[in-house]
Amino acid sequence: MKTIDGVFQNLQYSYAFKDTTIYGEVLSEDFLFTYRDFDRGFDISWGREEEMKVTHGLFSNSERLDLIWNNIVLSSIDSTDASIIRSFNLTIAFNPVDIIRLDGRVNLRLKKNSENGKWQITKWIDESNL
User: Fold this and answer.
1) Which of 23, 59, 94, 121 could form a disulfide with 18 if both were Cys (CB 3.0 to 4.6 A apart)?
2) How far apart are the C-alpha atoms of 75 and 22, rounded to whole Å?
3) What is the pLDDT of residues 15-44, one digit of tens each?
4) Is the pTM of this model over 0.90?
5) Tally of CB atoms within 10 A around 108
6) How far apart are CA 58 and CA 51, in angstroms?
7) Which residue pairs from 25-29 have beta carbons closer than 8 angstroms and sit at least 24 positions apart in sequence?
8) How many angstroms from the chain centroid is the CA of residue 123?
9) Total domains, the chain
10) Could you tell me the CATH number of the domain that includes residue 17?
């Protein structure tokens, strides 16, 4: 996680191996996740603790997760802060006949920890098609 690309690699690894420990390491203590609830017509947000519970549930209830990072649509990076919008494909296989495919973009804000030099995600805005 000494590079931003390393954060994306760790995210991909955590999904492939359903590893919440690695997933948790990429999230800052003040992490905020936001997604659009299209049925209700507004955004929903939660913090790090809820994100870890939701992700643990996803990892526990799926047989396979395939996360593919695609093009970086927009990036703004300085020595301690970064904003990245990147497209992705996520396939979630709950069982051989229950498979969900998501396509979308993540809009991430990252900060570099001055003590250990590692990048962490502070804000994740989900722009997927779900």
Assistant:
1) 59
2) 24
3) 999 999 999 999 999 999 999 998 898 999
4) yes
5) 22
6) 11
7) 25/1, 25/120, 26/1, 26/120, 26/121, 27/51, 27/52, 27/120, 27/121, 28/111, 28/120, 28/121, 28/122
8) 9
9) 1
10) 3.10.450.50
